[in-house]
Amino acid sequence: MYLSQDIPKITTHVLQEMKLKGEKIAMLTAYDYSMAQILDEAGIDVILVGDSASNVMAGHKTTLPITLNEMIYHGSSVMRAVKRSLVVVDMPFGTYQGNSKEALNSAIRIMKEAGVNAVKLEGGEEIVESVNRILSAGIPILGHLGLTPQSINKFGTYVVRATEEKEAEKLRRDAKILEQAGCFGIVLEKIPAELAAEVTQSISIPTIGIGAGSKVDGQVLVLHDMLGINTKFSPRFLRRYNNLHDEIINSVYNYIGDVKSASFPSEKEQY
Ligand code: KIV
Fold this sequence. Notes:
This protein has helices at residues 12-21, 33-42, 53-56, 68-79, 100-114, 128-136, 152-155, 165-181, 193-202, 223-226, 244-260, and strands spanning 25-29, 46-49, 86-90, 118-120, 141-146, 185-189, 207-210, 218-221. The protein is α/β, with parallel strands linked by helices. It folds into two domains: 3-240, Phosphoenolpyruvate-binding domains (TIM Barrel, Alpha-Beta Barrel); 243-271, no CATH class. The chain is globular.
């Protein structure tokens, strides 16, 4: 039995309580009504409408092409299904970097049009002006440090980040900056477990890891990866809970066979 299970609606305050009480936060991505309904029914604490939608829903190679309108579409689809989970939408690349007024306008559009609970932004010190402006409008922010996929053209690869002391030190500093600004949590992606544990201990807000080891306050995975819908992506940190790729192939294969052999529909399946 988990402390959060009796709570009718997960809020940022509940996540803070969970950190204080040592209950891990379970977060998954979702991008559409049907999947969000299942995740909410299963009791997931947080649903992230990630810009990974750019990859798994739209088939782009990176998260960069997805637009604000597309993220609002995914966010509002998820929101129509959800009763209990906290729903966070990723602000897409180009809608918050460099211009804090534009960042605020983008965040307001997401909150108004998708009706979600919070937004997520990638980066630390370099986006703090946007973070402050969005927070000052009463919009909760989840930070994202470490491997930040919107910066893939700067990094050049998706390898583990902050293995060198200089980058680790910047990450520690950025985590403090986001905490002090008033973010309600921080995603730590693909960094050494020891560093993630240290950052988790050093800040009062929850950390949610993906490829950041077990000593963080919660975990997040991309739904299509953990369900085995997408089988081409298999980093070390990914645990697969199903092989829906093969299950769907088998179902479709059986359906094709039934249609071709005219065994579907049967008498019971007709009017
Ligand atoms: O877009 C996304 O799905 C994410 C998670 C990997 C944290 O940012």
